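General statements about sequence and structure are easier to judge against a single worked case. Part of our work consisted of pairing the sequence of a single chain with a tokenised description of its backbone. The amino acid sequence and the backbone structure tokens for this protein are reproduced below.

***
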Amino acid sequence: MQLYTGNKNYSSWSLRAWLMLDKNNINFDDIGLKLFTDHFYDTLEGLSPTKKVPLLIDGDVAVWESLAICEYINETYLSGKAWPEHTVQRATARAMANEMHAGFFALRNELPMNIRATRRVSLSQQALKDIKRIEQIWANQFKQYNGWLFGDWSIVDAMYAPVVLRFKTYGIMLNQEATAYMDRVLNCDSLNRWITMALAETDIVMEDEAGEEIV
């Protein structure tokens, strides 16, 4: 099994799929590609119809989108355990995961993932609204489960992990419960393996360099 990923410092969608595999102790080859280079597109030519990462190749199966990769791994290798067992909880978790997947555009545009940086940014009202909604999700779930968003680690935690890193980079302050959830994520061994790799990188992707560096 191969997972094609982008720069660890910047590629938030790659992180989601990578966490799904690493967190569940599934063996795979991580094939890292430098974003927006000729080698990146040449490598993905003929493998992915979108020429984007993440891309999972499992034998004859190719899955080229992060949430779809999580679903495929869950169904193929985890017997469904990466979603909550209870029907209502599972539906809520899927709604939250898709809310992240299909929304929060202002937040994602104004706070690109940049693990190596410590930055200050001026945020739009829509980005502040996005942050408030995510704070609400994390706080409400932490109050209920005092840990991961639905007790056990699940796909929805993978979907929000890059946002935790964004908030750390840009110094976003949250309420007590949401901060406690952030701390839980930042102490995850799998996430810290990714962070270590990101910190070792030296490539700069200007499209994802935002804000003013805090010295």
Observations:
- The chain has a mean pLDDT of 97.
- Strands lie at 2-5, 29-32, 55-58, 61-63, 119-120, 212-213.
- The chain is about 50% helix and 10% strand.
- The longest strand covers residues 2-5.
